[in-house]
Structure formats: C-alpha cells, structure tokens
Design goal:
Blueprint: H1 8-15, E1 19-23, H2 28-39, E2 43-49, E3 59-72, E4 75-84, E5 90-97, E6 99-107, E7 110-117, E8 122-128, H3 133-154
Antiparallel strand pairs: 1-6, 2-3, 2-8, 3-4, 4-5, 6-7, 7-8
Length: about 160
C-alpha cells in the first residue's frame, strides 16, 4: 500500500481554494438577511450582463448596505442596495427581477454573487473587504496562526 502525505504547499493551496455553491431557492430570504449582516460596509462592484439586463445603476467601489429578496407585484426581485457617497444619505439600487439561480463564490477574502434571471441576464456582485486596523490585525493573526500550525505539524510529538 502506498502512503501519501500532504505537503505544506498543498495545505496552503487548500486554504486559498475557491468555494462555489448554489443557494437553494427555499433559502433565498434567510440567505439575504444573513449575507447582508455579514458583508455590510464591504465595497462592491455590481455589473449586469446579457440581453435582458435592465441596469438602473451600476456600482463600483461603493459600500454595501443590503441584499433583499421580495415580491414586487407578481414577480420575485432581488435588490442590491449600496451607499452612494456622492449624495448625503443617498443609496443606489440594482434590481434583478424574476431570479432563477443564485451562486455564491468565496476565494480568499473576496466574495462574488451571481444572480441569473429568467430573461437570460446575469448580475455579478463582487465584494471586497475594507482594510481597517482591526481587519488587518485579524488577517496578520490568522497568517501567524497558520504558520505556527504548519511548523508544529512537522515537530515530533512529545508527551
């Protein structure tokens, strides 16, 4: 029998591996609420693609406020709400009507949402965490912890 071992490089690459999953339709409401809480104030880029896209506003580098899922007359709608820094207390909205699929991708510290609509359009929202002294320190601690864990793994066990 052949024994395989995981190298330090393999462990590091698995930490940075992309995670991609489709959010089931029955979870959309709860997903929006939790996602909005977890990513509020992250910077976003919003872009719509496809023949059926009806872009009311595209956002680039604006702070994320919320993602909502609701019924608008007879159609289901996702609304992406971002703060518009050019207008005091201003917000910009991007709506996706008749959504058919939501995919979330996580890679490193970034997150990307794909919302596909029945009309063939696709809205992509890219999230970037704002670097603050707290998040920078947290990132440094995580890297230090990973290095310690990797170094300790190679040490012989002593009771």
């Amino acid at each position: 029998m052949r024994k395989t071992t995981e190298t330090g490089r393999d462990r590091r690459s698995s930490v940075l591996r992309q995670i991609k999953r489709e959010v089931p339709r029955r979870e959309w409401g709860a997903f929006c609420q939790q996602f909005s809480q977890d990513h509020q104030e992250w910077l976003v880029d919003v872009a719509s693609h496809g023949e059926g896209s009806r872009t009311s506003h595209e956002a680039h580098g604006l702070p994320f406020e919320a993602l909502t899922f609701h019924l608008d007359h007879t159609h289901e709608v996702f609304s992406i709400i971002v703060r518009n820094n050019d207008i005091p207390e201003g917000h910009a909205y991007q709506s996706v009507t008749r959504p058919r699929r939501v995919i979330i991708e996580k890679m490193g510290s970034g997150v990307r949402l794909h919302i596909d609509s029945d009309d063939g359009s696709s809205t992509i929202i890219r999230f970037h965490r704002v670097a603050t002294p707290d998040t920078t320190r947290e990132h440094e601690l995580n890297i230090g912890e990973q290095k310690t864990l990797m170094a300790d793994r190679d040490k012989p066990f002593s009771a």
